[in-house]
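JOB MANIFEST
job_type = single_chain_structure
chain_count = 1
residues = 429
[input]
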Amino acid sequence: MSSSEAAIWGYGREGQAALAHLRETRPDLTLVILNDTPVSDAPSGVEVLVADAAKEALISGRFALVVKSPGISLYRPEIAQAKVKGTRFTSGTNLWFEAHPNARTIAITGTKGKSTVSRLIHHLLIKGGFDAKLLGNVGVAALNETPARDWTVFELSSYQLADFDHAADIGVLTNLYPEHAPWHGGVETYYRDKLTVFHDHKTLAIANRAHDEVFTRVKDRGNLVWFNDASGFHETGGKLFFGTHEVPVTHFALRGAHNIANLAAACTAAEQAGVTGLRERVDMTDFEQLAHRLEEFVAHEITCVDDSISTVPQAMLAALAAYADRPLVLIAGGSDRGQDYEELAEALMRANIAALILLPLTGARLRAALEKRGVAFPIVDAGKLAEAVAQAFVHVPKDGVVLLSPAAPSFEEFANFEERGRAFKAACA
């Protein structure tokens, strides 16, 4: 193995930032780009290995160091083979923490709510007079950014946490549901990787007391503060409380009790970071809603809701609760990850459903779960999202809502939930 060679594996936004960072900080290294597909924008003079050639170079142990992009599974066999040869694997997130050892950081993860909670914490820090930045899984390569003066907030996915070997000052865990099992090689490994946010006991752990899976896995940890606990910030009846005292929340545009629970998480973390006054009032002025998360718009005088971020059944349950007062034409279905739809079927039987439009592949499973219960509302199968939207407008009553909340990933038709959400809006127009 040549100690002077390092590889950048994956040449998207993260890989490009890693290349620039290593060129600046490790000029002694000869850098090579590895990618699963051809690279058209590699800098001149940098060797590029693609597909099988990249795999063979990894397995040979050629590289002392490989900086892996988050989308590449840590559990690919060539990684294990390279490690046997002495190759060290790391990530852009690890490189950022190594470069800024004195930065004060807050790391947020969870199956659902991590993006919203990250942005809520960042908002509350700014409102509280702190200088803060939001980095991580938010479309910004951390290695292109320096820390904020006071707090740097990281949204971290399970992909980023799988090989995270540093420690944030504060860690936040929103919930744990089965997700991303193929990447992690199983749900249990996915949960373990998520819990890496708490792997160092110097991290102040902030966790969801109301979520059974989280409670069971972290209840014996020291240095722990709960949210959604009766003694602290929690959601009750769609309102924010601290203990027994209701906390007024002004200008909060996010709908649903689950978003009040997200706000409880954010208030807990922000208070621990030094923001004062949150037990008396929470000001959400200027907080902007993220796209594809119960995002409302009007088309043809009908309220439409883009909840394309709904990739697990629990996300649809939250959407149903948020619109319990309106008749719904629900569009559901997508890639099948073997998730349990029985609880979801029970909830749909109780919900105010005017019609259900189902997409492949999980739509067939949801139909079967409903039909054995004697469903009363119409169920329509659609092959593509555009067809599903057209059917939704046929069935929606004048006071109803067309809700896209698939409870499944998008990979049958779209590359990601963002592309699916944009397609939904275009089809509604």
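[summary]
The domain at 2-90 is CATH 3.40.50.720 (Rossmann fold).
The first helix runs from residue 13 to 25.
exit_status = 0
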